[in-house]
Design goal:
Number of strands: 8
Order of helices and strands: HHHHEEEEHEEEHEHHHHH
Strand content: 5-15%
Radius of gyration: 43 Å
Largest sheet: 5 strands, mixed
Low-confidence stretches: 1-9, 349-357
Structural class: alpha+beta
Strand order of the largest sheet: 3-4-5-6-7
Mean pLDDT: 79
Oligomer: single chain
Length: about 350
């Protein structure tokens, strides 16, 4: 019995794709996967996050290509003539250009003002045009990205044109005009920019996805621990956390599909995050109740074994009790024979009476 149980939950190395299949379709495999340890569970989580991040990066790349193309059209139709040389922008304009309708989720506003040069003038201009969200300022000699959240925290990230051009276009670009920039944005030369964008996006999205998923798994494991307390089954929290990681498999795949569908359509689910956590918890709760049923079955088997042992003990005791009377009966006839022999021998030892004398 013990050998069978040990074999049932023996630590084995299950490959990634089998774990994905087991996590979705086979609740009984969860304890087996949990016995592989926290390290393998976290490795599985990281691989799932990387798999999801690939689709997120591809979606972001496609969206960025659309943004770049739309931006090139906007520059062609709405921005006056300009030129770049020696790290500075020269533009034929007498007032700032403000662009509010940005077709990209990461940017809320773009303001072009090549008329300002000193830091004091730039800071004053930024304060006058301050707004919640991400605003990008194009000044004469630098680009400033200003991020403001909830009217409280403001993060300012300045970049020089020279560094920006070298990072995304290469060292070969020293100067360009408006027409050359538009042609460049629509040509295959942008592949260098897209490649770096995808790498940086993948790394940042992967780190964020792993952190969020770790927190989600912790939240689900906490609910799972409460469930074990209610059902009165003792499971280590590490094992519960491992199973919570595997329980997130289906929600993560659904999240990936949701990202793809949401990209091509306007379809949205208001409480998707709630459904995400709920599905994972249902999986974990099902595993816990399954373990509870297994435990009850084992207890029933133990009770049956105990009853059989009691029955055997009673039978042995009855056999011993039956043997004792038989042994007593065998001893009594021997005692009677002995007394008869003694009585026979007794008259020979007596003295004769007077008449016989």
């Amino acid at each position: 019995m013990e050998e069978k149980e040990d074999e049932k939950y023996r630590v084995v190395n299950i490959n990634f794709f089998k774990k994905v299949w087991y996590s979705i379709t086979k609740f009984e495999k969860y304890p087996e996967m949990a016995t592989e340890g926290l390290g393998r569970a976290l490795k599985y989580l990281a691989m799932m996050c990387a798999f999801i991040t690939v689709f997120m990066t591809i979606s972001s790349f496609i969206e960025m290509k659309k943004v770049v193309f739309n931006l090139s059209e906007y520059i062609e139709q709405n921005i006056p003539e300009f030129s770049y040389e020696d790290g500075q922008i020269q533009m034929d304009t007498e007032e700032p250009i403000i662009i509010d309708n940005i077709q990209y989720d990461g940017i809320n506003r773009i303001i072009i003002n090549p008329l300002l040069e000193s830091d004091e003038e730039k800071e004053k201009f930024e304060a006058e045009n301050d707004a919640t969200g991400v605003t990008i300022y194009f000044f004469k000699n630098q680009i400033v990205m200003r991020t403001k959240v909830d009217n409280i925290d403001t993060k300012i990230s300045p970049y020089t044109y020279k560094d920006f051009v070298q990072n995304y276009a290469g060292n070969d670009v020293k100067s360009f005009s408006k027409t050359q920039l538009i042609e460049y944005m629509r040509s295959s030369k942008m592949n260098n920019f897209y490649g770096k964008y995808m790498i940086s996006s993948f790394i940042s999205l992967l780190l964020v996805e792993i952190m969020i998923t770790l927190i989600d798994a912790l939240e689900i494991a906490a609910f799972g621990w409460l469930t074990t307390m209610i059902t009165r089954i003792r499971i280590r929290f590490v094992a519960i956390y491992n199973m919570a990681v595997y329980a997130l498999t289906l929600p993560m795949i659904l999240n990936m599909l949701y990202i793809i569908v949401n990209y091509f359509t306007t379809f949205t689910i208001s409480y998707f995050q709630v459904a995400y956590i709920t599905i994972a918890y249902i999986y974990l709760a099902a595993v816990i109740f399954l373990l509870k049923d297994d435990l009850l079955k084992k207890l029933e088997e133990v009770e049956k074994i105990k009853k059989e042992q009691e029955k055997v003990r009673e039978e042995i005791k009855e056999q011993e009790d039956n043997k004792e009377p038989e042994s007593k009966e065998e001893k009594e006839p021997k005692n009677e024979d002995k007394t008869d022999d003694e009585n026979k021998d007794a008259p020979n030892d007596q003295e004769p009476d007077g008449s016989e004398a």
